[in-house]
């Protein structure tokens, strides 16, 4: 990853900037000492770290407005941060930038069961929403593996998914509205507690914008009624290719499971050691498939999935007989990332998405790349929607291993694009995939995306250095492009 240039004039003004911020956010709301800033130096993408210029923890919209207005007026870069669980470096701070933590915005402001929505602040954790509504039989559908820690504001920034996103959608499908503050301090509201809004779908731009367009201060989420019944199947296979083919067959049969996850042998063994729920250690691959809905429908679909799996050569098919057993099946999957962390000092968690039919080919390709780079890999991913999470194991203390792991990950993502997939499914681009964007987009595509950024943040002060591989000034976006001495549309008269 190419480091960003550090603005020495900002560093020279550090004490002045901190003094101004302390006048806006009183008490302990500004952290400027090294020890206090150290916990914020990286997010879940721990391969890279920077100490921020300062950390600011506003506790009101008015404070946030004032901080952003000051930074805008004085050309100070800003990086917004939620719980810091991003796996793409989306909230990696800048040495010459202020990091704004939104974790004091942690209130659930309104719950409307009749209209099925809740209004929450961005620092509320993902699982806290479900806990707040489950007594009435409701829940919030997107469920990333980090749901007990990740914030809803971070979920909006990265368009997070989870094991149930196949049937119930990603964050973007479960957000009804946001309030946000732009870099110049202006407050805007998009959407709200209703099904749709008039005008352009700007809300669709905000979800997944990785904190580059504004800082979210309030989120209106859709809450769903808990399904009447849910059962899960734990299906073992003697090859990853057979498991991948089974995934395609289930979807081709018109069955949309509530969740459909896949783990390979290293991940199975690590998870079983971690939670001891009876995963098939002898299997080369395992599928977890959950069906939900009315009991009669669930029983019928369970039978269909079992038949498809056996036809594809499943060596074992275990069906949950109680709610406790269903939750036990999922406990290992939810704990897979920390479990794999016991296998190696470090790992990179990749996040490519591919067409389901390409699963066997890509899994074989990952195996070949593992041999090429001499690094182990454990596969844990959302099989139903083709969102892969290969975990590349390495030791950062060994010279060259981090670079090999990054090169390995880059080749996996290039393979995803080659088979018709995309660079990310739910972790975002951040700094991790930033320099791979030209693998998927040409210069015209990227310029159009930068124009959207410029419409919200013309000085490009908000979370700079993320997503886009080349930093342009917004003024450059209107330039005339001359290629090989030829202007576009040479037949048109020019004056």
Automatic annotation (TrEMBL):
<dbReference type="InterPro" id="IPR016169">
    <property type="entry name" value="FAD-bd_PCMH_sub2"/>
</dbReference>
<keyword id="KW-0560">Oxidoreductase</keyword>
<dbReference type="InterPro" id="IPR004113">
    <property type="entry name" value="FAD-bd_oxidored_4_C"/>
</dbReference>
<protein>
    <submittedName>
        <fullName>Glycolate oxidase subunit, FAD-linked</fullName>
    </submittedName>
</protein>
<keyword id="KW-0274">FAD</keyword>
<dbReference type="InterPro" id="IPR051914">
    <property type="entry name" value="FAD-linked_OxidoTrans_Type4"/>
</dbReference>
<dbReference type="Pfam" id="PF01565">
    <property type="entry name" value="FAD_binding_4"/>
</dbReference>
<dbReference type="Pfam" id="PF02913">
    <property type="entry name" value="FAD-oxidase_C"/>
</dbReference>
<keyword id="KW-0285">Flavoprotein</keyword>
<dbReference type="GO" id="GO:0071949">
    <property type="term" value="F:FAD binding"/>
</dbReference>
<dbReference type="InterPro" id="IPR016166">
    <property type="entry name" value="FAD-bd_PCMH"/>
</dbReference>
<dbReference type="InterPro" id="IPR016171">
    <property type="entry name" value="Vanillyl_alc_oxidase_C-sub2"/>
</dbReference>
<dbReference type="InterPro" id="IPR016164">
    <property type="entry name" value="FAD-linked_Oxase-like_C"/>
</dbReference>
<dbReference type="GO" id="GO:0016491">
    <property type="term" value="F:oxidoreductase activity"/>
</dbReference>
<feature type="domain" description="FAD-binding PCMH-type">
    <location>
        <begin position="48"/>
        <end position="226"/>
    </location>
</feature>
<dbReference type="InterPro" id="IPR036318">
    <property type="entry name" value="FAD-bd_PCMH-like_sf"/>
</dbReference>
<dbReference type="InterPro" id="IPR006094">
    <property type="entry name" value="Oxid_FAD_bind_N"/>
</dbReference>
